[in-house]
Design brief:
The chain is of the alpha/beta class. Helix 7 links the parallel strand 4 and strand 5. Helix 6 runs parallel beside helix 7. The model has no long low-confidence stretch (mean pLDDT 96).
């Protein structure tokens, strides 16, 4: 068994132990595929990790950029504290409709607001309308705009808030991103996190079912 096979097998072992999907989760993936959405949602283990982080910080207000079919949204919404609310931004109306149906089936529609449109246009208004800072922000949208999202997001968080960003290693291409605009944007975003005195941050390198990538984790001081 080569190293890639081992990484995938270990991922499946972990998922089977700690992140078994229930009917709502498996149906969310199936319906997303049936609707022709790209098969790029987080893995079950990654979803469970997002859920646990939300629980650990007692998140009552979560902001997500990039809804897709609502799989990660479902995990995060389940991690909300009592009375909590999640706002998720999605560019594609078709994706938003699939996500809305998936969340309704899971009994989470009342906890989640889906905002449709380009995030760079909708994000400022979402932050301005928020009645309190967000406790957790998860970025999993177009990689090119990660650095642009950052400035807006920092206006909507508080001391102790968590900022999470997926896909920031790009199969290692962040080491030499020439010609790859998404890898360059991820590299620029990582540098922003590392040099901003308001944050303490790390990137968790990930290998397995989803290939080779990484999750940025930052805490607002």
């Amino acid at each position: 068994m080569d190293r890639t096979d081992i990484f995938v097998s270990v991922d499946r072992y972990i998922d089977d132990l700690f992140a078994r999907e229930d009917e709502a989760l498996t149906a969310a993936v199936a319906d997303s595929r049936a609707a022709g959405l790209p098969d790029i949602q987080v893995s079950a283990g990654q979803g469970k990790f997002l859920y646990l982080l939300a629980r650990l910080v007692g998140a009552k207000r979560i902001l997500e950029l990039g809804t897709l079919g609502g799989y990660s949204t479902l995990w995060l919404a389940r991690g909300l504290a009592d009375g909590g609310k999640l706002v998720t931004l999605e560019y594609e109306p078709v994706h938003a409709r699939v996500a809305a149906a998936n969340l309704a089936r899971a009994g989470l529609a009342d906890k989640v607001e889906i905002v449709v449109g380009a995030a760079l246009e909708t994000l400022p208004g979402v932050i301005e309308r928020a009645d309190a800072p967000f406790d957790l922000v998860f970025i999993d949208a177009d990689k090119l705009n990660y650095p642009n999202y950052f400035a807006h997001i920092m206006r909507g968080v508080r001391s102790g808030s968590l900022l999470l960003a997926d896909n920031v290693i790009r199969d290692g291409k962040v080491l030499s991103p020439a010609g790859d605009v998404s890898a360059q944007a991820a590299r620029d975003f990582n540098a922003l996190l590392a040099t901003d005195d308001r944050l303490e941050a790390i990137v968790l390198q990930q290998v397995g079912i989803k290939g080779h990538d990484g999750l940025a984790i930052a805490r607002v001081k």
